[in-house]
Amino acid sequence: MGPDELLEMTPALLAKSILHRRERLAETIPEQLDARQDELRAAEPLARSAKEQRDAVNSKVANLKKERNTAREKAKTLFQQANEIRNTIALEGGVKQANPEWAQNKLNEKLKSLENELETNAGNHKTEQKYLAQMKTLLHEHEQWVGKRKDNTAEHSKMKQTYSDARKQLELAEKAHQALLEQASENEFFHNTYLEQEAHRRRADGRTKRLAVALDSSQKGIEFWQNYIDNGFDKLMENAKRVQSGERSSFVRHKEAKKENQSRNTKKNRSKKPNQAGEEE
Questions:
Q1: Are 180 and 68 in contact (CB under 8 A)?
Q2: Mean of the pLDDT values across residues 153-171?
Q3: I need a labelling partner for 234 at 20 to 30 A (CA). Which of 72, 110, 241, 253 fits?
Q4: Is residue 167 part of a domain?
C-alpha cells in the first residue's frame, strides 16, 4: 500500500486493519508459546542435572588438587627437616659420610630444578605428574644411598626416617595427581554437556519470554483499538484537527522546543566563561 492509499484510509478502516492483525497474532501465539514452554520445562532439569554433575566433578578435582599440593608441601618440609638433621650431625662431629655434602648438594640442585619447573608448568597436569615422579625417584635413590652408610646414631636413623617419610608424601601426591588426571576427561565432558544444555535452556527461555511479551502486547493492542472503534476517534484526532486549524504540529513544536533549550544552554555556558580579569562575567 502506497502513501496516497494510506492517507485515503479512514481512521475506522485503519483501526480495524490494525485490530485484525492483532487478533491474528493473539490466535497464533498461544500455540507457539505452549510449545516453547514445553521445551523450556524439558530443558531446565537437563541443564540443572548437567550442572550438578559438572560441579560434583569440579569438587572432586579441587579436593584432589588440595590433597596433592598438601602432600607435596609436607614432602618439602620433611626434606628440609632431614637437611637440618644432617647439618646437626656435621656440627656435632658425627660421621659426615652418612650424607656427604657432595651428595646432598647434588640432590638439592636436582630437587630445586624440578620444583622450579613444576611451578613454571603448574597448568600442565602431565608435566606435573612427571616432575612428582622424578622427585620421588630422587628421594628414593638418596634414601637408599644413605641407608648403606654404616653409622647407626639416633640422628642418622631419624634423618633416614625423615627422608622415607618425605618419599611417602610424594607417593601420596603422585597418587592424588594420577586420580586428578583420570578426572580431567570426565570433567571436560560434563562441563561441555552443561554448556550445551544451558545454552538450550537459555534459548528456550528467551523464546518463551519473547512470545509472552508479544501475546501481552497483542491483547493490549486489541483492547486499545477496540475501545476507539467502539467509542470514536476524537481523542486520536485532536492533533490532526489542531494542524487543520492552522496550529503547528506536535513534531514542529517539539523540534522548536529542543532548539530553544539548546540555545539557552549555550548562552548559559558562555556566561560561565571567565573574562580577561579572571572573573566570571
A1: yes
A2: 80
A3: 253
A4: yes
β-pair partners for 274 = 280
- Name the average pLDDT for the chain: 76
Regarding predicted confidence, which is higher, 217 or 246?
217
Residues 146 and 227: their CA atoms lie apart, in Å, by 100
Whether 218 shows a pLDDT value over 50: the answer reads yes
H or E segment and range at residue 76: helix 11-91
**How many CA atoms lie less than 13 Å away from 148 in the CB half-sphere?**
6
Last residue of a domain, one of 152, 182, 200: 200
The burial class, CB within 10 Å (0-12 / 13-18 / 19+), for 167 is: buried
Residue 280: strand pairing partners? 274
Sign of CA dihedral 46, 49, 53, 56: positive
Q: Which residues, 6+ apart, have CB-to-CB distance to 68 below 8 Å?
A: 132, 173, 176, 177, 180
For the chain, how far is it from start to end, CA to CA, in angstroms?
59
CA-CA distance, 190 to 196, in Å (whole number)? Answer: 10
- Looking at the fold, whether 195 and 243 belong to one and the same domain comes out as no
252 and 125 share one domain: no
Residue type, 161: Q
For the full predicted model, state whether its pTM sits above 0.70. no
Cell numbers at 236, concatenated: 486520536
pLDDT (tens digit per residue) in 180-215? 877 877 878 888 888 999 999 999 999 999 999 999
**Which of 110-114, 140-144, 149-153, 188-192 comes out lowest in average pLDDT?**
149-153
